[in-house]
Amino acid sequence: MASEFKPVVTGGLAKQIAVSIGEAILQGRLKVNERLPTEHELAAQFGVSRPTIREALKRLAAQSLVRSQRGPTGGTFVAKPSEADLQASVSMATTMFMSLGELTFADLVEVRGELERVCCRLASDRRSDAQLSALQSELAIQSDPKIDDVAFCSSDVRFHKVLIEATQNPLMRLVMVAIIESLHAVTNLVSYPARKRQRIHAQHQAIYQAVHDRDPDAADRAVANQMVYLAETYADAQELRKERHSTKQNRSASD
Fold first, then answer.
1. pLDDT tens digits for 109-120?
2. Domains of the chain listed by start with CATH number
3. Strand (E) or helix (H) holding 232
């Protein structure tokens, strides 16, 4: 065992124990895939009951810091971080802050715009032929007038995710995918008539061409132009959401 734990003596025992073990994991004193002591052993180390340890381990599992394994070689192990889980966690937290009014659409659009400009500059230098092909596939989908708004929006999100992947930077992927996922539900509220689709498609085409040509300055300009348009789109989505909420409240009041 790479770490010894000191007994805790005040309230919120399960929480304190989870924090103590979590810190050992985050500080590297407990390694990925390392087996934790048994519940009985942990209870003795911390000076608490096994149910308290069980609750602490549940807290850690909810944070994706530990995993349970059954069988003769089973037990509780330090979990390897999952990028998808981390993205989902950041996205959920971002969405929650937005719903609480701690973040605005303008805040997210501003951050997305600045980071996406960096993404496209990096993608211009690091992209692969396979990623170029994936971008082309999404452009073909977006040019199809027969697809509905949800399919168009989904293709839009996939297009930008490919650009993020092309940065070859895992931290950029974590942050940017979470931001885009947070805004996906908002953009799904927006209607995409032909003129809007054509404009977005043209913007994406300009980004693609800049990345294809490995021209970071052109990519920067193309993204900056699209972010101005998207800021307007998100503002429209926010107004639409308010209108729908108001309509729903009025209907409830009249029932």
1. 788 889 999 999
2. 13-78 (1.10.10.10), 84-254 (1.20.120.530)
3. helix 216-254
- Give the whole-angstrom CA distance, residue 61 versus residue 154: 31
Give the tens place of pLDDT for each residue, 42-93.
999 999 999 999 999 999 998 889 999 888 888 999 998 777 777 777 777 8
- CA dist., res. 133 & res. 248, Å (int): 44
* Helices 129-142 and 149-165: angle between axes, nearest 10 degrees: 160
Q: Which stretch of DSSP H or E encloses residue 124?
A: helix 105-126
Q: Which long-range contacts (CB under 8 A, 24 or more apart) does 219-224 make?
A: 219/117, 219/120, 219/121, 219/123, 219/124, 220/117, 220/120, 220/121, 222/120, 223/113, 223/116, 223/117, 223/119, 223/120, 224/113, 224/117
Report residue 78 as tokens.
């330090």
Tokens 């168009």 sit at which residue? 152
**Structure-block tokens of residue 182:** 């947070």
At 159, the pLDDT band (50, 70, 90 cuts) reads very high
Asked whether the whole model's pTM tops 0.90, one would answer no
Tally: H helices and E strands in the chain: 10, 2
